[in-house]
């Protein structure tokens, strides 16, 4: 519990100034570092054929976002399928199959990092550094750019004074400028600093082939073992800071080469939450409504504390925690509570890295992880968490307005039928996709390939699709997931969870910005209050957890009750 308190204090203490810095970066305001970054940014803008001072409407912004994703998708997919013939492959790693390469590309393109491969054995150094790490750097910034454009739209766009006519196109910013500035001025410097700290703690950072060692046990059939190394520290830095989660090694942050010391464990955990927390602190100065930013932060903080507290209790202090079998799959050097804190943090943030086998966690810890991903806005990923929060905010304003007999409006702009229909699509899309694919995987014998046919088997399959849709990437494992079914089905779910959730709120924000703004009065619905924050939290729980209650009961809840029955004997 002390570690959680220290983690929370440092996340807030570091997130506050970083959030204000991010607000200045995303506003394009003059900064002291312009002399340094300007000479790097200007050639990039010329190469992209854009001028950062020229804004875009929401369609142009969304089109640029999709175009950049398409180009990266084709390049990285081709890289994975040809890595055996390319340089920087000292270990002779073969090409990926087309379906595994497709899943891996979509997974990292959507800032998810769900891995159906082991990086140390199935990717070359070039594929890791250019394909994996390249996407890990760029894709979180793309999410941040889209949420910045959405915030601009909610508050009238960059040319708010002209937005009094429905024919006026709202300027939501320049996509290329948003991505370039955030990458160069924020993400890369933070990665450089964290990479140096992790190298100091013993995380490898080399281009040499791994050494060959003799096993300690002389009677073992294995006469020698090749230890895979590589430029691990830079990848670990961006995997945590960018809400990515995909590790150099298959077992992820449980491997001592990725996470060698208690200090490296704490630094990585702090890095996971740093930028998402900073984005929440960015809201106030970026929009000019600091009370609104405080409401967002307070709501997320309350949900985070409740979620983490339940995970720590379940893993370390509940009746099931006394069973020594629960230490299977956990690192003894880290312990149960540190593992539970990591599991809670990485599912509150769309990170997905693991420092224990989640399949071995207490059933209620698994329930917490699933619930965090279904909500998908407790901090959330870089940008996409706040984007999902905006969806809940708009729905809450509409429902609260109807309940109190007031016209549903946010910041003076009415929320009407077209906007509500788009919000309803997002609300229904989540259960339709997740439950549909879960039902098919469980209904067809042998398709899921899960290691447990009971209640836990339901959790394994459901968790895989929830993690994919939430763009988290962690897994219960216990699945034979390196198959065409899993690769193709989860690739679809990955894309289905990413693009509608980012682009539909942007479209809604632009629709609201084109409406005439009515002056706020005492009769207006006040969203910057604790009462509304409590209402919003209740609506989040109703819209997410209750519609998935049957599968949660059949999975982790039933698994917990079965374990309790065994312990009682």
TrEMBL record:
UniProt keyword list: Cell membrane, Ion transport, Membrane, Potassium, Potassium transport, Transmembrane, Transmembrane helix, Transport
Alphabetized InterPro entries for the sequence: KdpA
Domain of life: Bacteria
Compartments where found: Cell membrane
Membrane topology (UniProt): Multi-pass membrane protein
Chief location category: membrane
Keyword Transport: yes
One Pfam family this sequence matches: KdpA
Transmembrane segments: 61-80, 125-149, 266-285, 292-313, 378-402, 422-444, 491-512, 532-554
Xref: PANTHER family: POTASSIUM-TRANSPORTING ATPASE A CHAIN, POTASSIUM-TRANSPORTING ATPASE POTASSIUM-BINDING SUBUNIT
Function: Part of the high-affinity ATP-driven potassium transport (or Kdp) system, which catalyzes the hydrolysis of ATP coupled with the electrogenic transport of potassium into the cytoplasm. This subunit binds the extracellular potassium ions and delivers the ions to the membrane domain of KdpB through an intramembrane tunnel.
Quaternary structure (record): The system is composed of three essential subunits: KdpA, KdpB and KdpC.
Family named by the database record: Belongs to the KdpA family.
The name this protein goes by in its record: Potassium-transporting ATPase potassium-binding subunit
Organism per entry: Comamonas endophytica
Gene label: kdpA
